[in-house]
Amino acid sequence: MNLHLNNYASMAASWKTGETPSMWQRVTAIAVTGTLIVLNDMQNTEAFLAFSRSTCRTLLPFGRGFIDGTGYQHVINSITDPNMPRMFQMGANGGTEACFDPSMVIFQSSGTPEHSQSRRLWDDAVMSSMHLGDLPDLGNTSARGWMRRMRDRVGWKLPTEDEVGALIVPLLLERIWGKKPTAKEAETVAGYLSVGKVCIFGGMADSIPFLPSMIAAVRTAHVDFARDSPTADKLVKLLEEPGFAAVQKLYQSRGRPIRDVAVQGLADATMFAGVLGTTDMTFKCVKYTWQDPKHLRLFREKPTEYIWELMRVQAAVQGVSSVSTKARDDHMAGEEVHFPAGTPVAYSVSIANRDPIMFSKPSDMDFQRPWSEMGEMLSWNGRLKDVIARNYTGAPRFCPGHDLSVKLAAHVCAHLTRNL
Ligand code: HEM
């Protein structure tokens, strides 16, 4: 842990002069954070908690910014702020066009026409109804390939995250675009699980050799698949309506055909928010039910409630990024650091979900947790009760994928645990 703190002390020192961290500092931070995840049995919330404790809950890894809120009340006030500011950045590393088009919804501040029209556009085109109807029976689908055969040989039966993702991706793509991908198309998009995770750290992606072109290849393949889909046609038609003038202008400013910009934004959100989040959630469901018969029984009894509580304690998306509107002075790792207005900030929904003010025995998974508590959890970027009600007043930027992601996770988790 000392290495961790020393590393952050030196980062804080360089922040005093307004410098961004050096490559060496970033590499050390990645190594230490990775070690924390491994030491915490791959439970990213525990790793994130350990990280936050060791840095006094203030610094953001890899870049220049701070964690502004972990307490429930602070986080809820921020994520439900009708005017939450955003800019083209992720974590504390800026944005990168290797991962996203800057016109994408997550970079638009709440309360602006660009944000509210983007949300309505996606709702009207697909998102308000994409969860309806049954999912196809997965039959006897199971993972194939030499890696699985080797794992079987050594008795490692638990499906891997990639194997879970291989089942999630084709179902998700069909729901989003209204078009079935070929096995090859689905496999290519599933490659985002290997190359796209680094997009969580924004501009970091640019500093890793070969990665930007690998991410670009997946994004291009996704757009090529989706360009002539029913959802792409709907997006283009809706964009002609006066009610979407601000988004149309935003897309036109990108200097590419408007269809491609519209498809790119939804494709990026599908992979970044959808593929990564839903695969993580489903993998956790498989892992916990595989390890503990009590979990399996509780999942089979009430799959939705099981997934909610799992996500309260082990959130798939740890927090949200914003930007400070005021300058701030902080004492960090022995240094006085000045952060000007415009510095990246993050809010931790995963730590807020464990705040004893809101949740009794907050770190325990209690699958009988009353709705008076469960309805307050924040893992889909708003109080669960507001997310489910699609209440834009209560949760101005709630995750529009909640219903579909829970349905997909329950379906695939049930399939992968059917023989237990
Ligand atoms: C079907 C799969 C999913 C889709 C299509 C999806 C889509 C989206 C979109 C478009 C946003 C941006 C909302 C905005 O900025 O206004 C978003 C945000 C978010 N989603 Fe999802 N999502 C999915 C799955 C998940 C899962 C499984 C989780 C976690 C359990 C999750 C948690 C979140 C959170 C915390 C945010 C806020 C992120 C931020 O503001 O930086 N999502 N989602």
UniProtKB/TrEMBL annotation:
Molecular function, one GO term: monooxygenase activity
Highest taxon, organism lineage: Eukaryota
InterPro entries xref list: Cyt_P450_sf
Protein's recorded name: Cytochrome P450
Species of the source: Polarella glacialis (Dinoflagellate)
